[in-house]
TrEMBL record:
It comes from the Bacteria. It comes from Polyangium jinanense. PROSITE patterns: PROKAR_LIPOPROTEIN. This is Lipoprotein.
Amino acid sequence: MLRLGAFVVLTALTGCGEPDGRASPLTAARGLAVTALPKASAAAVVPTNDPPPVIETCADSPAFALFVSPRKPRPGTPLRIIAVADEASAGALVVQDGSGKTVVRADERRGAGPYFWNVTVPAPAAGTLRVVLAEAQAARACKDVTIDDADEPPRAARGMWPISTAWGKATENLYAAWIEALFDAPLGEPLTFPALHEALRDPKRNLLHDHLGRGEDDAGPDAPVLDPDCADLPYALRAYFAFKMQLPFAYSSCTRGGGGRAPFCKRPRSNLEWPRHVRTDAMAGFAEFVRTTLADTVHSGTGRTAGDDDETDFYPVRLDERALRPGTIYADPYGHVLVVVKRVPQTSERAGMLLAVDGQPDGTVARRRYWRGNFLFALDPSLGSPGFKRFRPLVIERGVLRPLSNQEIAAHAEHGDHAMEQYEHGVEGFYDRVDDVLSPLPLDPKRALVETIDALEEQVKGRVVSVENGRKYRQSGGKSVEMPDGASIFETVGPWEDFSTPSRDLRLLVAIDVARALPARVERRPERYAMPPGKTAAEVRTELDATLAQELETRRFTYVRSDGSSFSLSLADVVSRAELLEVGYNPNDCPEVRWGAKEGTDEAATCKMRAPWKQLSRMRKVRAWFKERRRPARG
């Protein structure tokens, strides 16, 4: 039986192994793929003869943990090691051979909480290596790793995969580190994958790559496909991590809400159940589970369950630095779900940032920055409880998998972050609080405006891709796309979901409003900004209005028209066409119409396709949702 409270021994290391010197089954089973990204790898593989830390001084600290991968280290196979920590330690991750000589080390600490270090031993020889997280010649944590050709004893599986490890501080920190590494990229560069499996097959990104030692993540014509959409993406990531680490995983069948009530869940399921089809290849069976059973069960309403409901897959968290960590999800009130992948602390040159990824209907996974235009929020009981949430912790008691209640989470020493504060101060209060967490110091108002425009530009360029996908579909012979009725335009499957953009366009319209309103927000809340000395809030607003107009006019992009030619627009054009963009989401319209080109202009001259008149009539009936920047209540 696994109980969450017993898991603290995994992180409370006074020496190599458990406190009494013995390795428990859970500790021995622990591991992960820790192939570093290029920068970290270069720093990690430089041998050094620095004196080793004194192991006798290892502190008993549950806030530090060490993991190795593959699960069964073998001679000649790259050995990956990662350390995770709650504290921003100045330590280094050191690997020593049997003589105490340092083989590799990593001095670079990654993350902004939790923190992690990772190294790779390219081709370890048979024997024992000692791994130490060292700080000031003392060991924060250490572990002896045996490398040999002995096979692991077979483990009887119950359900889709066995459970040998429990969720706790160490594994949650490891999950956050894995998420951050998987979607890491320089801040100024876009990050997009055609499907999730493209990221998972990259050993420089995936810290769990080939963790089972079976080549399970290798690319090839028969490689398993993982291409979840936005609602499935958080579950696919959590399930993949649990599958590799032999952790519990649960998911529920939930309603979408209706009749003024938030979505609620009815039937929890878990990896202890057998899959529909048993596969001899574990990875192929896992991928089939994600693409069928899991995808057929979870949906966008699953993340919007009420915050005070205990029978849910997610629970709302406090708004603080610890909670806004990689792996936390954001469920917006209208059906979109994102996964936080990185928090970037504020500096003297830049506001703090939060980065997240989302999945699209075509399987594309892209990284986006947090801002009001991407992370929509509303307080309406019929929409449920949106906001930042985490997966509910799971324990096994008497052979039964059980999620912790909200009260248990709030009182738990290793969690303790269930809270309803996101819903207690109104919509403006929510955004103010998130801004305060990300940037606790006053912001330069002009820099805040420019970064807001950066985010708007990013959103516009993302829409270029979506509109182009629709153009290619129609021009490749795709038939006219059927349009659903009413609120179903936001929630459906098939070509309409793949190529229409009602949800994206609603978010873009909100983003335009946010950019327009930023100067007024500075005037409303001057204490939040580093106001120029000698100027009133009204004077600063006037200057910001001028900067906004200039930035919108000078920033340009191109889209592809019906005849294949490119046409250039400015962000100012997009903002001025906001009213026309209220009806720009139909993939049966030409790209010119979808970008708001007016009939009779040179821009619109190449348009060769319009939506059927019945669809145009339906669009007029629901236009108020876009004009008022709201999604309809369900039921």
